[in-house]
Amino acid sequence: MLGAAWADYEGAHALAVRKHFRINHIFAGCRPALHAIDLVALATERRDLMAWSADTHPAWEVLDMPGRVVPPADWINLQSLKREHKDWTEWRDEFLERYHALGMAVEQWSKENMQ
């Protein structure tokens, strides 16, 4: 639906982030894998967060083309009771814990690889 307009908008912002973190060259090498991951995320969001049904709604070209159907992730359910019953502080704490762990991993990687 948004097509080229969204691609232009998203692409410009993604490029700015990649340039800021100096990862443009890494991104270029991983583009096919990142695109596949993004499509699985989209299929998972459609399954769990939208009132979409294959019986009553048109197919999404990017997810539903014969021969290249993208299934949602089978390892997560965004509507699970466990997720629904979490307090916002639990989400915050989990986010911060993961954020700090990733930051330490990036710092360690940088020390080992960016000399």
UniProtKB/TrEMBL annotation:
Q: Give the source species.
A: Xylophilus ampelinus
Q: What is this protein called?
A: Uncharacterized protein
